[in-house]
Amino acid sequence: MHRSLVITWHAEEFIARERGAKWYWSVGVIGLLAAFLAFYFDNILFALLLLVGTGVVLLYSKRPPMMVQYSISIHGVRIGSHLFPFENLDSFWIHEHEETPLIMLQTSSFLTPMLSLPLVGVEPSTVRDFLNHFIKEKKHEIPLSEHISRALGF
Length: 154
Fold this sequence. Notes:
- The protein is α+β, with helices and mostly antiparallel strands.
- It has two domains: 7-13 and 67-151, PH-domain like (Roll); 21-62.
- The protein is built from four helices and eight strands; from the N terminus they run E-H-H-E-E-E-E-E-E-H-E-H.
- The chain has a four-stranded antiparallel sheet, with helices on one face.
- Helix 1 runs antiparallel to helix 2.
- The longest helix has 20 residues, at 21-40.
């Protein structure tokens, strides 16, 4: 393997989707109902958490996606300015049959056990061949959190 080989691509952090007034009303009403139920059952802290979470989702939904640079080299996988060394990565799987192909990376980190990288403008087979030199390929399903964020339009 050539030691200077770097695979680099750019992709938006999420696929921008048009959200109409109905979407905002739905999120707001669901958040308020959930907070009301938490308050009704004397769980005030959870009610506050639900209200803040609903506000964050509504504010975050107005922000356009940022362009992120991804790269894979002999040092590891870089997402923006954060490097994930191969020593901290356990395995990978490439979902090629999605709307946008995804690389799923299993990490040894407690906070980010699974990373999902959109693969745009790069051949999945090239990435697979490169990663196989450093970490094992093991099938990973797309996490529930990824499905939920897609359903919410993120």
